[in-house]
TrEMBL record:
Organism of derivation: Bordetella genomosp. 11
Name this protein carries in UniProt: ABC transporter substrate-binding protein
PANTHER family reported in the protein's UniProt record: BLR1237 PROTEIN (PTHR42928:SF5), TRICARBOXYLATE-BINDING PROTEIN (PTHR42928)
Record keyword Signal present: yes
Family per record: Belongs to the UPF0065 (bug) family.
Pfam family, one: TctC
Sorted UniProt keywords: Signal
Signal sequence coordinates: 1-27
Length: 327
């Protein structure tokens, strides 16, 4: 007798797959059919949260569904980013990440729960802002060369929002480039780091420009340089680190949207198109500009993939040279 059980099982499997494929395609065609959760790995009020909440209303219009900003802070955004990496790859749970968790933490944390290149898929960067080097007004240095000269004579202390993030690596980059006595003083968040810089408990601070903008305008801190290739529109009188003689001190925070790996390409393409339209909207540009944040998009998701690979290499070199660790 012929054993037909195996062929029948194969046929049943083929039929099952054939039934699933149209359903999956239909789901992609209907995307999005429910709210999208945009996860931010930092607490409310920080740069990531600000960017997410500026983008969300217009993003909702262009993607055709409600976009809900959801804060899941902890461990330099690793907790929130890992949550997204483990979520269903259907385009309904995505993250607005930044340089710290996506390009720096893999080099400064000993046990990363996710791989940004394997467990996530990049859609595009959406914005960028430089780090700002600022000092307490009592510090005699008024320019970057003067600050470097001062660091050759005594310790110059700089606060940051914590170990292992972009501000920390920016401080280490300054230390390496200046060959001065630059001392990193980590705090638990930008708020206390700024408070002690204003109070004179440390000489200066390096964090995202938007966080220091008001303090500089009020004269509570003195801006020394922006760590970017060009000056910031909101601080045109503040030179770049390159103009100050340290072109390798390049530390700008970029913000990017990523989805879980294996999210279907049609879904990624829809998200990409809507995000680029959002960032190019005049009212969104104006809202970002007021805070010293610039639109920054990639030509395609693939281009963003190459960008993040280069950032991982660049910050890996700084982390290794400085020995910076988060834990």
């Amino acid at each position: 007798m012929l054993n037909l059980s195996k062929p029948l099982a194969i046929v049943a499997g083929v039929v099952a797959v054939a039934a699933i494929l149209p359903a999956a395609a239909a789901a992609q065609d209907d995307y999005p059919s429910r709210p999208i959760h945009l996860v931010v790995g930092f607490p409310p009020g920080g740069s990531n949260d600000i960017v997410a909440r500026i983008l969300a209303p217009k993003f909702s219009e262009f993607i055709g569904a409600s976009v809900v900003v959801e804060n899941r802070p902890g461990a330099n955004a690793i907790i929130g980013t890992d949550y997204v990496a483990r979520s269903a790859p259907d385009g309904y749970t995505i993250t607005l990440g930044s340089a710290s968790p996506l390009a720096i933490s893999p080099h400064t944390y000993s046990n990363m729960p996710f791989d940004p290149l394997k467990d996530l898929i990049g859609i595009t960067t959406v914005a960028q802002t430089p780090e700002l080097i600022a000092v307490n007004p009592k510090v005699p240095a008024k320019t970057l060369p003067e600050l470097v000269a001062l660091s050759k004579t005594r310790d110059v202390t700089f606060s940051s929002s914590g170990n292992g993030g972009l501000p920390h690596l920016a401080i280490e980059s300054l230390k390496i480039a200046s060959k001065g006595r630059i001392v990193h003083v980590p705090y638990k968040g930008a708020g206390p780091a700024i408070t002690d810089a204003v109070g004179g408990h440390v000489d200066g601070i390096i964090v995202d420009l938007p966080a220091l903008y008001t303090m500089v305008n009020e004269g509570k801190l003195r801006a020394i340089a922006v760590t970017n290739t060009h000056r910031a529109d909101v601080m045109k009188d503040v030179p770049t680190s390159a103009e100050g003689g340290l072109p390798t001190v390049l530390a700008f925070n970029w913000f990017a949207v990523m989805a879980p790996a294996k999210t279907p390409k049609p879904v990624i393409d829809k998200l990409y198109k809507a995000l680029v339209q959002t960032v190019q909207a005049p009212d969104v540009k104006a809202s970002l500009a007021k805070l010293g944040i610039e639109p920054f998009t990639q030509t395609s998701p693939a281009a963003f993939g190459e960008f993040i690979k280069a950032e991982l290499v660049r910050w890996g070199e700084v982390a290794r040279a400085s020995g910076a660790k988060a834990d």
